[in-house]
Amino acid sequence: MLQGLKGADNVINANFRKLVLGRAVGNAGDSIYMIAMNWFILQLTNSALWIGIMNVAIVLPGVLLFLFGDSIDRHSKRRLLVAVEFSQLVIVVMLIGLVALHIKLPGIYVGLVFVAALFGSLAYPIQDTLVPLLVEPDQLVQAQADMSIAYKGTDYVFNALSGFLISLCSVLGVLIMDAATFVVTVATFRRIKLAEPRQQHTREKSLYLNQILVGFKIISTDPLLRLLTFASVVMNFFFGGLNTYVVLFGRHFGGSIYYGILESMSAVGILLGMTVVYRQLKKLTVRQSYLIGNFGRALFMILTVVSYNQFWLFAIIYLLSFVFQGLTQVFETPMIQATVGSDQLGKVMTCFYTLVSVTLPLGSLAFSFLADRFDLRLFLLLFALFYAGIFLLFLASHAFKKVDELQLS
Q1: Could you tell me if 120 and 214 lie in one domain?
Q2: Residues 275 and 190 in one domain
Q3: Residue 31 belongs to what H/E stretch?
Q4: What pLDDT was estimated at residue 198?
Q5: Higher pLDDT, 1 or 219
Q6: Do 184 and 228 sit in the same domain of this protein?
Q7: In this predicted structure, what is the pLDDT of residue 160?
Q8: Do 219 and 348 touch, CB atoms closer than 8 A?
């Protein structure tokens, strides 16, 4: 049973709804100010280099998350979540002041965005450690589906709307709107009622280095966690490449409109996988559904290779591959949450996010270098073969055969 909430299903559901609402509004804020600041830096410097530096500042914090896992495990998750959202609010208010005063020092803006991105990145492992305290183990998969829709859905919508909002309201106006979203998020998270277990704070500071590495050790020694992490790390490497190649696919088919359609197809596909397909397969076990997701994304990614010269056929198959990608994403975090004890979950989740974050920019760089050196279809084939390999690894894994013992459904 849940600590401090035994027998109070209505309270649990109310608390989880507050978490989902706060996450949705908070992610809208994240999406708005990241895009707004990229546009502002371009206007300020007219330099592609500064855009690159800004994007490094946005991505780099994910690599540093493992440094904070022990702190997440030792402190109140609800209070930490409120603190990181409030910290982002403070930084956005500082950005509003700098923009309003027409300060033209790009380094200051990049530094503030880096700190804001660090707090924003911390919200994910914190919420992942909070969810198991709000729902029962057999509700974790549904909870992850709801959380994924909350943050991915708002990401997609507000990424699409940000350009329109900037043109309508100016960067300053968008930042003011952004500050309002963080006020709502902080107020919503503060209303979560949860009696969290008291943690001991007796560790010596000299043990800090050992503690921040515990998550890596747990991942490396647990067969299921090791397989999940390996699959996610390599997959993010390919997704880094896809961020480059989808632009080239758009050019191949005729221009930016095709690029936009493909980006929309991937977003819609993931959301359909997390909602419609997941609900249709709820009667199956977690293992069966996850294997179907892995097989489906491999199959349809292979079919993109043979449909490469017919845009709408390619686009539909591309969408279907992301439908199954969305299905797999529903199950990954719950499997980690159910495998790891609550006193170590913060360390494991931050280390997991660190490993996954490293390979996304590496994949983007590697495949950007290779883009002019081989046919674009070869990338699709390599991606499909990776998906097929992951399917076979999970199918053969003894640890994964026992995943239904975690009672996630």
Answers
A1: no
A2: no
A3: helix 9-45
A4: 63
A5: 219
A6: no
A7: 63
A8: yes
Q: Return the structure tokens found at 40.
A: 């502002």
Domain stop point among 162, 194, 226: 194
- Asked whether 51 and 42 are in contact (CB, 8 A), the reply is yes
**Residue 184 and residue 219 share a domain:** no
Domain count across the chain: 2
Domain shared by 121 and 218, yes or no: no
Do 324 and 293 touch, CB atoms closer than 8 A? Answer: yes
Which of 164, 194, 224 marks a domain boundary? 194
Residue 8 predicted with pLDDT over 80? no
| Residue 310 domain-assigned (yes or no) | yes
The whole-number average pLDDT for the span 345-350 is: 94
Residue numbers of the domain that contains 135: 9-194
Give the per-residue pLDDT at 199. Answer: 60
What amino acid occupies position 53?
I
Interval 391-408 mean pLDDT: 91
Are residues 168 and 248 both part of a single domain? no
For the ranges 127-141, 252-266, 324-338, which has the lowest average pLDDT?
252-266
- 39-48 burial: b if 16+ Cβ within 10 Å, else e: bbbeebbeee
CATH code where residue 23 lies: 1.20.1250.20
Length of the chain: 409
The pTM score is 0.85
Cα Rg of the chain, angstroms: 21
Query: Which tens digit of pLDDT belongs to each residue from 120-169?
Result: 999 999 999 999 999 888 888 888 888 888 877 777 777 666 667 777 77
**Choice between 88 and 203, residue whose per-residue pLDDT is larger:** 88
Is the domain of 224 the same as that of 179? Answer: no
Mean pLDDT for all residues in the chain: 87
